[in-house]
């Protein structure tokens, strides 16, 4: 009968067999404590080291990115200042060039005006000289022509001074 009892009890699941239950509890406690110790002192510290190193790397990258950002802002400010300075310098150069060109144009215009004025005066003087010569030539031609005509139509010869006086009077009368 005892063999029948053993056969009956062994026919079920061994985990549910109360005869082996204290042994199973012992080994569960041993493996649980062992598992806890391995997890607590081996796995968790390694994970903490990995997480800490990753966090440190992330923090270092963030800090480096912030430094790059600050440096980029400084460079941007320097570029902006240089651009403003270059713009002001370009405006100054432009204004200076405009002033120089205006001065040159004014100088050239003044020179041209002086040249034109001088040429006008010279031309007026030449015209006046030509006019005087023309009047003198007209007077001389008129005197000669008058003497010649009077001599052809009349037998009396007039004196040159009388003819000159008559022609001069006629010329003066027409100029009024």
> What's the N-to-C terminus distance?
180 Å
Biggest sheet overview = none
- Briefly note the structural class of the backbone: mainly alpha
Order of helices and strands: HHH
How many domains make up the coordinates?
1
**Could you report the average pLDDT, rounded to the nearest whole number?**
86
So what's the overall shape?
Answer: rod-shaped
Could you outline the blueprint of secondary structure elements for this entry?
Elements: H1 2-10, H2 21-153, H3 160-175
Helix pairs in contact: 2-3
Model description:
With 176 residues, this protein is mainly alpha-helical. The protein has one domain. Helix 2 (21-153) runs antiparallel to helix 3. It has helices at residues 2-10, 21-153, 160-175. The protein has three helices and no strands.
In short:
This protein is mainly α and 176 residues long.
Task: Provide keyphrases for this structure.
single chain; 176 residues; mainly alpha; 3 helices
């Amino acid at each position: 009968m005892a063999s029948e009892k053993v056969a009956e009890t062994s026919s079920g699941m061994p985990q549910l067999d109360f005869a082996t239950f204290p042994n199973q509890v012992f080994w569960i406690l041993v493996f649980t404590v062992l598992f806890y110790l391995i997890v607590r002192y081996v796995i968790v510290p390694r994970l903490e080291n990995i997480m800490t190193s990753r966090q440190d790397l992330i923090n270092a990258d963030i800090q480096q990115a912030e430094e790059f950002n600050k440096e980029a802002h400084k460079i941007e400010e320097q570029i902006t200042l240089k651009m403003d300075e270059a713009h002001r310098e370009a405006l100054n150069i432009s204004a200076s060039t405009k002033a120089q060109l205006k001065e040159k144009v004014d100088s050239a215009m003044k020179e041209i005006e002086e040249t034109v004025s001088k040429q006008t005066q010279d031309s007026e003087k030449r015209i006046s000289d030509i006019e005087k010569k023309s009047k003198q030539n007209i007077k001389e031609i008129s005197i000669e022509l008058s003497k010649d005509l009077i001599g052809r139509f009349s037998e009396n010869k007039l004196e040159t001074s009388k003819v000159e006086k008559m022609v001069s009077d006629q010329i003066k009368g027409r100029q009024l």
